[in-house]
Amino acid sequence: MKQIHVVGAALIENGKVLATKRNEDRILGSLWEFPGGKIEPGETPEQALKREIEEEFSDEITVGIKVGETSSITYDFGTVNLSIYLAKFNTHNFHLIAHSDIQWIQKDDLEKMNWADADKLAVQALKKIDFTKVDF
Ligand SMILES: Nc1nc2c([nH]c(=O)n2[C@H]2C[C@H](O)[C@@H](COP(=O)(O)OP(=O)(O)OP(=O)(O)O)O2)c(=O)[nH]1
Predict the structure, then answer these.
(1) Complex-level ipTM
(2) Which of 77, 80, 87, 98 is most buried when burial is the number of CB atoms within 10 A of its CB?
(3) Where does the record locate the signal sequence feature (predicted)?
(4) What is the total count of domains within the chain?
């Protein structure tokens, strides 16, 4: 099975985390995710995440620690290996091109979103983090 290595950003701000809804016409369309994308050859996860957020929002971020373990989910198009990192925005342009909706959510509302399967492990790990104390 084709291995797809993906990074996502759990962007923290004002005690909330950003959830983004994938555009309808994309693979796994309409599901909620952490923004990011595939790691290109030669990139570190951090470089990939910064590039993807620049592409998807025209925004610059700082990347922190990894949240929980990498999760692997197999679909007919390949196995998605997803790693989520804490992050924060340095700019706030939010020029959305890949998402139909974004929402800042409190920890208690994390499980209310219709997450892509691979994201559920990170969602559980995020529940153990105090967003108001995240600092990097
Ligand atoms: N970005 C992102 N992708 C996720 C998450 N969870 C999850 O299963 N995926 C899947 C969807 C896609 O199959 C793959 C990432 O592809 P993508 O379409 O977001 O990445 P990309 O911009 O690099 O891809 P492309 O359109 O250039 O081909 O991982 C998530 O939280 N964030």
Answers:
(1) 0.93
(2) 87
(3) none
(4) 1
